[in-house]
Design a protein that fits this description.
E2 component of the 2-oxoglutarate dehydrogenase (OGDH) complex which catalyzes the second step in the conversion of 2-oxoglutarate to succinyl-CoA and CO(2). The chain is built from 9 helices and 21 strands. It is α+β, with helices and mostly antiparallel strands. The strands form 6 sheets. Strands 11, 14, 17, 18, 19, 20 and 21 form a 7-stranded mixed beta sheet that branches. Strand 15 and strand 16 form a beta hairpin. Helix 7 crosses helix 8 and helix 7 packs across helix 9. The longest helix has 16 residues. It starts with a strand and ends in a 9-residue tail after the last helix.
Length: 418
């Protein structure tokens, strides 16, 4: 099986081979995640279609055209797959050598694991003296059964991808002139005490989109605040009834109501025309380790509260598992961003072009507010709406945000939307 950079959308012509999940020469099982690639839109894993031995042609950190072969799996005979699975399981189970509680505590303090040490005690048991040795070799990997080795094809010459774009056969082991695909000298521009890392395709695309939002829209932000007491009480009731639901689905439902009442916020400018959408495809901003992703919850106006809750959870799970597709990111008509997850009290969110608006949620904080002539402490949240002033007037923007506030503070309208 050849491992190729897959097609990830019509506009994607290259991808970064971000990392290999398995080392060169290791045994992999069918459906194992073997490497991670990153484009200017998504990050995704490539999975093994067969079981066998992994041969890496291209080292991680290389940007390659779509369709490039980055490695291959030397396929095992079908009769060997069960034996390979047993071997892999056995290797995982033997990773930790026997240790005492005192040794385990010392390992944790040193930031090490038992698998990194070869014990000198009976049966390979790790002793306290072993922790003082700095030259302890790592235990050898468990040997594969001879029958399995015989079923696997071996290659003595593994081609390596050069940065220039050509291929060359690998040099024999021990050759001091062997070149590595990612080998490079120190960056001459890096000053002492700093490190320079090439910007990833996804981060580069995020930067371009942020600049586009600034330069191509007349962005203005309006603010309001909402008393979250009624909504918190409603969520508590759902939880006690065994039906817990997140906070975001309520904001999605309130936003849908506001988009239907103020259609200009759910529209976009296309040249000399205004495109009004009669559906609500809501982008949900989610932060990942690779950067900000905005997957789209489609036809949100047709979904009930629980369907919205499940839909958002499914999108988040896709991001965490690197299974997000290009289609999951396209077609949004409005975006919701929750900076409150990280403790933000107030912000001015940026529009996601070609959309014309974005709702910013923030942290809930107990603050003194006036109620019926009395100062009381209430759970309050600031809301922000950034909008394209070319299309949306201030009156519409303020009315839109005020309607969301009213819906969240008076939750009776949610009764029929479960």
């Amino acid at each position: 099986m050849e491992i190729r950079i897959p097609t990830a959308g019509e506009s994607v012509v290259e991808a970064l081979l971000a990392k290999w999940h398995k080392p060169d020469g290791s045994m992999v099982l069918k459906d194992d995640a073997i490497c991670e690639i990153e484009t200017d839109k998504i990050t995704m894993d490539i999975y093994a279609e067969v079981s066998g031995r992994l041969v890496i042609h291209v080292q991680a950190g290389t940007t390659l055209p779509v369709g490039t072969v980055v490695g291959r799996i030397l396929e095992a005979d079908p009769q060997a797959e069960d034996q390979l699975a047993v071997t892999a399981t056995g290797a995982a189970g033997s990773a930790d050598a026997p240790t005492s509680p005192a040794v385990r505590q010392a390992l944790r303090q040193q930031g090490r694991t038992a698998a990194q040490l070869a014990g000198s005690g009976p049966g390979g048991r790790i002793l306290m003296n072993d922790l003082k040795r700095t030259d302890t070799p790592e235990p050898p990997a468990p040997a594969l059964p001879a029958a399995l080795h015989a079923m696997l094809v071996k290659s003595e010459e593994t081609p390596v991808y050069r940065a220039s774009g050509c291929w060359k056969p690998a040099r024999p082991a021990g050759d001091q002139n062997t070149e590595k695909a990612t080998e490079a000298g120190p960056d001459p521009q890096a000053a002492p005490g700093e490190e320079r890392i090439r910007i990833s395709p996804l981060r580069k695309r995020i930067s371009e989109r942020l600049l586009q939002a600034r330069h191509q829209t007349a962005t203005l932000t309006t603010f309001n605040e909402v008393d979250m007491g009624a909504l918190q009480a409603l969520r508590t009731n759902y939880k006690l009834a065994g039906q817990p639901v997140g906070l975001l689905p309520f904001f999605v439902r309130a936003t849908i109501e506001a988009l239907q009442a103020y259609p200009a916020v759910n529209a976009r400018i296309d040249g000399d025309e205004i495109v009004y959408y009669h559906v609500q495809h809501l982008g949900i901003a989610v932060s990942s380790e690779k950067g900000l992703m905005v997957p789209v919850l489609r036809d949100a106006g047709q979904l009930g509260l629980w369907e919205i809750n499940e839909g958002i959870a499914g999108l988040v799970q896709k991001i965490r598992a690197n299974q997000l597709a290009i289609a999951d990111l396209e077609g949004g008509t409005f975006t919701i961003s929750n900076g409150g997850t990280y403790g933000s009290m107030l912000s001015t969110p940026l529009i996601n072009p070609p959309q014309s608006g974005v709702l910013g949620m923030h942290a809930i904080q107990h603050r003194p507010v006036a109620r019926n002539g009395q100062v009381v402490i209430r759970p309050m949240m600031y809301l922000a709406l950034s909008y394209d002033h070319r299309l949306i007037d201030g009156r519409e923007a303020v009315g839109f945000l005020k309607l969301i506030k009213e819906r969240l503070e008076n939750t009776g309208w949610l009764a029929g939307l479960n």
